[in-house]
Amino acid sequence: MLTYPITLKRDTNGTLLVTFPDVPEAITVGETEEDAREQALEALEAALAFYFAQKTPIPWPSRPKRGQATITLSTP
Asked: What's the CATH code of the domain at 13?
């Protein structure tokens, strides 16, 4: 399993903006924290699929800062 740190930031319209410091292509929003996390997993999977399609090395997750939220990607 790979666990990527995420940044959750309340946007001006009240939604939560989710970004991945290690995967800049993975950006999404959610109405609630639960929704944002679900959307984040989908965004991460899509970004990594793009890396695979382009034959680009997958960025390894950095170590999360204390208290930083994370998304875990299950690997087969």
From this structure: 3.30.160.250
For the whole model, what pTM was predicted?
A: 0.90
Number of structural domains (the chain) is: 1
* The two three-digit tokens of residue 43, written as one number: 């965004």
Query: Within 10 A of 58 (CB to CB), how many other CB atoms are there?
Result: 13
Phi (first) and psi of residue 52, to 5 degrees: -60, -45
Q: Residue 28: give the domain boundaries.
A: 2-73
- The 10s digit of each residue's pLDDT in 5-24 is 999 999 999 999 999 999 99
Q: Mind giving me the DSSP string for 1-35?
A: -EEEE-EEEE-TTSPEEEE-TT-TT-EEEESSHHH
Tens-digit pLDDT profile for residues 28-42 = 999 999 999 999 999
Q: Which helix (H) or strand (E) holds 38?
A: helix 33-53
Residues paired with 9 in a beta bridge: 17
